[in-house]
Amino acid sequence: xxxxxxxxxxxxxxxxxxxxxxxxxxxxxxxxxxxxxxxxxxxxxxxxxxxxxxxxxxxxxxxxxxxxxxxxxxxxxxxxxxxxxxxxxxxxxxxxxxxxxxxxxxxxxxxxxxxxxxxxxxxxxxxxxxxxxxxxxxxxxxxxxxxxxxxxxxxxxxxxxxxxxxxxxxxxxxxxxxxxxxxxxxxxxxxxx
Length: 193
Known about the structure:
- By secondary structure, this protein is an all-alpha fold.
- Helix content is 74%, strand content 0%.
- It is built from 10 helices and no strands.
- The chain has helices at residues 9-32, 36-47, 51-64, 69-86, 90-103, 110-121, 124-137, 142-154, 158-166, 178-189.
- Helix 4 packs parallel to helix 6 (110-121) and helix 6 packs antiparallel against helix 7.
- The protein is elongated, with a radius of gyration of 23 Å.
- 32% of the residues are buried.
């Protein structure tokens, strides 16, 4: 068999694969929205720890779909990671999360991420308002209650802090900051406060 002939089936394989891939991408766009294929790539970058590449993808998605909350959320999330890890870009993260909320307040977790940024910026009341909204939307995530317990603690609200701390089961504490958790537990156990 001569595979070098132009009409050999193996010569057409790359074209067929490209056609299948573009058909799949179009089907995904129809199912999830056109911005979603870019966002999925950005999420992969986040999961692989490459926030710069995720930001690049999010900026590309924002250019293509300026009214799409997912792009603003993704870039806001990436900048909120900078904020959490290095104390940088907190205001920038908040501004992108603001835009995501303006477009679709129910897309993912914008209020939680914005609350984290506000917390680090020292806007405890703003952070508390945001985390309260997030908990209204989803009262099953222990990290939301942990953040609110920390905020109540810093605002001097013992009852609120201890109530939220009581929502955390032992199994929930694995992803939480151990030092902060211990500080809150001591605070709630100390009857003199």
